[in-house]
Amino acid sequence: MSQPRPRPASATASPTRIDAAGRRARLGRRHLLAPGCRVPRAEDVAEAVVGLHATDAATVHLAACARLVEPEPGEVERALYDDHSLVRLLCMRRTLFAVGAAFAPVVASSTAGAIAAKERRDMTRWVTGGLADWDERRLAEVEARTLAALAARGQATAADLAVDVPDLRDTIVQSPGKPYEATVAVSSRILRVLAAEGKIRRGRPRGGWTSSSFRWTPGTPFAELPAPPPAEARAALARRWLAAYGPATVEDLKWWTGWTLTDTRRAVAATDAVEVTLEDGGPGLALPDDIAPVTAPAPWAALLPALDPTAMGWKSRDWYLDPGHVPRLFDRSGNIGPTVWWNGRIIGGWAQRPDGEIAWRLLSDEGGREAAAAVESEAARLAGWVRDIRVTPRFRTPLERELSR
């Protein structure tokens, strides 16, 4: 059976053309990167970009502060750990995101729930296949005891929980005999799955805001959330994504969410998206109220962190990234490093040196002296709020390594 297709912008006219300049104008405004578009609260940032990448703990703070009127890590910590208005979910593409608490049920139903189910299947096979004296019944008992121990403590690290539940200390040797052989405690996989299901959540880290050593706290299982049905939730997520990242392509949305092509097309059809023509002449999608021209903001520069949601927002990136710069800005797994932006295009990269200096390099002469001056100002702004914290991306890229020396 054929899948629903986006309808043209007009029944009698060709699809509206939205060129790269129009897409970059939207990016600068909607992703809060132009100085005049910055916002006061971390929740506003997450809403604008749908969710903040959170695989690297530092990215959440760096990405949010790049878009805040007053950049301050404490503002992000307030939202994450005091007000719980931002929550971390393993969701799109099995990536950890920080999303608004009100939108979390939609993300859970559309994406995270299915990922959690797969994580559980994989973990169950891993534990019961790797440990002779473990079966599904024992696994369930250990999980129940772990949740009870966490409830009693209120918050705890994995090591704390292993004191109460010694079974968590059991280990499995992965890839025995291989160069990458590793001994892994079952606690790491069990806690990951419980978090993926919403039963526990990452609380305040043991160290500063760059630390990935989290204390765990009790959570709310997805099954208890008042969430819309999956198909309805996928449509809601697609609509929110198009509002932030459109115009874009079906392939962009499929890649960003990790959905099947069928689910992506059905979600798009439910948004009433219209077909537009993009800068390369190919078809794109936009919401019906987003086909009029958008005025570009005043010239702007931005220093965005590794895995920033804007840099990782689309599968097709030629309209904001020169393909020739990819080898220096990405690692071998496709993770982007810290980037320098000018008016909606990536023109370079940056890193922090051991003495705290923010070093940057332009890979393009686009914008000339005006761009260089604006980048220098943004580097000073970044150094001003990072202060004595040292940030090393979890995924190192060639240019970042070079600049950080």
Automatic annotation (TrEMBL):
<keyword id="KW-0812">Transmembrane</keyword>
<keyword id="KW-0472">Membrane</keyword>
<dbReference type="InterPro" id="IPR009351">
    <property type="entry name" value="AlkZ-like"/>
</dbReference>
<keyword id="KW-1133">Transmembrane helix</keyword>
<dbReference type="Pfam" id="PF06224">
    <property type="entry name" value="AlkZ-like"/>
</dbReference>
<protein>
    <recommendedName>
        <fullName>Winged helix DNA-binding domain-containing protein</fullName>
    </recommendedName>
</protein>
<feature type="transmembrane region" description="Helical">
    <location>
        <begin position="96"/>
        <end position="117"/>
    </location>
</feature>
